[in-house]
Specification:
43% helix; mainly alpha; 10% strand
Length: 321
């Protein structure tokens, strides 16, 4: 049975908010933008097994489509939680609650915030028939073109990945003072998207090598990185995730750095705090790195900024990365 025509009719007749500006009816782009982001995720292998999980890649794609294809500044907010929750009104999008939150989900008519969405909802799924359709490249492209034709005047492929790559370029290339002016620290989705990009770019700059121990750790299975990307001055204090505020460290050395058991001086040498003792296992400890030169990226512009090293040394706080 061919389900495509029926789903195309439903997808091009979504219930969307609208405003009249200057006599022109402008429709909110949020629901179709999220569907385009899901199609992109399926295409790139990021959305699998009919489980649409809230990930930085999905959010970045959604925001990019909204910003690129929005009918006007009236819809610049890009509230991810609203379409993710309210697409269920189309009866092809199904929400699945976090364990123990089923009653909250069934009794909710809307969602208060992005944090509330993540607290209550584990993932979304599509009708099985629609999911089967989006696995087929031709049908997926028919759906994409139908959404673009109905709701948007133009398209832009791989919007989500372009957004993430652009963030990475800014972290590597732009001065912190310029870059930080564009950061909305009150936007939960913005912070969520930026965190894995920071980790990716720091580990790339250091070639997946701990800046103190020199241990190079690479995952060949696609698992999470084995090294940590550490903020020198904690994000909660600096709101700075440019490359000059980053270090690649082994998890144990990351914890020691955050707790001020060691620090980096202005000549990029490791200094271990006075009064820090190791009772055993010295060959695996921290003291052996005292006075050692930091292993720095090949590109000088990617080295830690001295002012950040000084600020971390003087802060005396435990900090969080």
């Amino acid at each position: 049975m061919n389900y495509l025509p029926g789903y195309l009719r439903r997808l091009t007749n979504l219930k969307v908010a609208a405003r009249t500006v200057g006599g022109v009816r402008l429709e909110a782009p949020y629901k179709p933008a999220l569907l385009l982001a899901v199609l992109e995720g399926v295409e790139e292998g990021l959305v699998k097994n009919n489980r649409i999980v809230i990930t930085p890649e999905l959010i970045a794609a959604f925001r990019a489509y909204c910003q690129l294809l929005s009918p006007g500044p009236e819809y610049a907010a890009c509230p991810f939680q609203l379409p993710f929750f309210h697409l269920q009104s189309g009866r092809f999008w199904h929400l699945h609650a976090q364990p123990g939150r089923e009653l909250v989900l069934t009794s909710s008519r809307s969602v208060r915030s992005f944090g509330h969405l993540r607290e209550v909802i584990a993932y979304a799924s599509l009708d099985e028939a629609l999911w089967e359709l989006v696995q087929r490249p031709l049908a997926r492209e028919d759906i994409r073109q139908a959404l673009l034709t109905r709701y948007f005047p133009l398209t832009r492929p791989r919007a989500g990945q372009e957004k993430l790559d652009d963030l990475g370029r800014q972290m590597l290339e732009e001065p912190a003072a310029v870059y930080n002016r564009a950061v909305d620290v009150t936007d939960e989705t913005e912070v969520l998207v930026r965190s894995p990009v920071f980790s990716r770019e720091v580990l790339r700059a250091y070639q997946s090598t701990c800046a103190i121990s020199g241990l190079q750790l690479l995952s060949t299975t696609g698992a999470a990185p084995l090294l940590d990307a550490c903020h020198i001055v904690p994000w909660s204090v600096s709101h700075d995730d440019t490359i000059g505020n980053g270090l690649a460290l082994c998890p144990n050395l990351h914890r020691a750095f955050d707790r001020h058991l060691l620090w980096i001086d202005v000549n990029y040498r490791v200094r271990v705090a006075e009064g820090f003792g190791e009772l055993s296992g010295h060959e695996y400890g921290v003291q052996r790195f005292n006075g050692q030169q930091l292993k720095l990226p090949k590109v000088r512009a990617w080295w830690p900024r001295v002012e950040n090293l000084v600020a971390q040394r003087l802060s005396g706080s435990t900090g969080q990365c």
